Amino acid sequence: MKYLEVFFTAFKLGCTSFGGPIAHLSYFHDEYVTKKKWISAEAYADLVALCQFLPGPASSQVGMGIGLSRAGIFGAILSWIGFTLPSAIILILFGLGMSEAKDMTNKNWLHGLKVVAVAVVAQAILGMGKKLCPDKERITIAIITSVILLFFSSALFQVLVLVGAGFFGVFFLKSLPNLPEEPLHKGNKNISLLFLILFFVLLFFLPFLREIYPDQKIKLFDSFYRAGALVFGGGHVVLPLLQAEVVPSGWVNNDLFLAGYGMSNAIPGPLFAFSGYLGAISEIEPNAWSGAIICLVAAFLPSFLLIIGVLPFWENLKKNPNIRKSMSGINAAVVGILLAALYQPVWTNAVFSGKDFALVASGFLLLEYWKIPSWAVVLVTVIVSLFLY
């Protein structure tokens, strides 16, 4: 009964949680803390802080952590499935439709999806920038990061700038306030250690395996696992990592990539479900459903391994001021990654005229200042684009 309750509560949230990761956390608080009282407000704040520090989709990790506290490891799995399933099915079906209608890639409605993605990413940058870059030091980290990545856009440089920002944070940023002290789920530390080891083994072993044994499914799994393992800051930041993996390699057409990203902002649930769409339309895997499942599991697996692996050790780690300062620097670099992504590939593949810019500006106005839900802005932009072009 407890397992079913965990699954259906997460499924309900997956069907109704519009608005991106920050909005998801508000929905979660209302459901898990206020209504069901599965977790205290202090423990919830602690869990959110931890998931902001870890790579991967923060809202999905919070859901996994609550499922873990409620019903163990199987509860974490059910919580992830429930929250991800609605958006994954919608995006996979959308991908199948796009695959059957590739001659439609130049239609006006598709261009509208690409244009509205610019407004969504711009709003994400502004919101995260206000929160993660409140002083000149962290703003400087963000700008330097974006400049570096605009000149050197490989995944390797993304990792290097995150590491560099972490070291900068230790030596030059101010110490952050202590986090709440209420303990979370106390798991078995030996099992948690195995999960952490598996996380790093897959991260470093899969790139070698794909070279030694060049199976298409291994290549797909490695690319999406690495993207999920190296993303700090949530779903929006996975965009440049996935774009660098699937577009230059020819696995996914760039127009279809941006169309799917725009669609993912019009539906509830985690933005990481976008990986299922990419798997469904990928040229590397002929079976769309098989490709979608591989990409979904690979993209979310690092988050699952980390949240289970880190939770039992978090109480001691969070007390270390250097850990907190390092993560502060890394979070600022995340804003820089988003800023670079706003220009390339989002802006450069969507904004070609004054009409395009007008749609972007209008969408940003509705999102940021009129607080219109993102799904409604996407729908309005697509409708307008049908008549505008």
Descriptive report:
The protein is mainly α and 389 residues long. It has one domain (2-388). It is built from 17 helices and no strands. The protein has helices at residues 2-16, 21-35, 41-53, 58-100, 108-132, 136-151, 155-172, 189-212, 216-229, 238-246, 254-264, 274-281, 288-310, 314-317, 321-347, 354-368, 374-388. Helix 5 (108-132) packs across helix 11 (254-264) and helix 5 runs antiparallel to helix 15. The radius of gyration is 20 Å and the shape is globular. The chain crosses the membrane at residues 73-97, 109-129, 141-171, 191-212, 224-242, 288-311, 332-352, 372-388. This is Chromate efflux transporter. InterPro entries: Chr_Tranpt_l_chain, Chromate_transpt. It is found in: Cell membrane. It holds the Pfam family Chromate_transp.
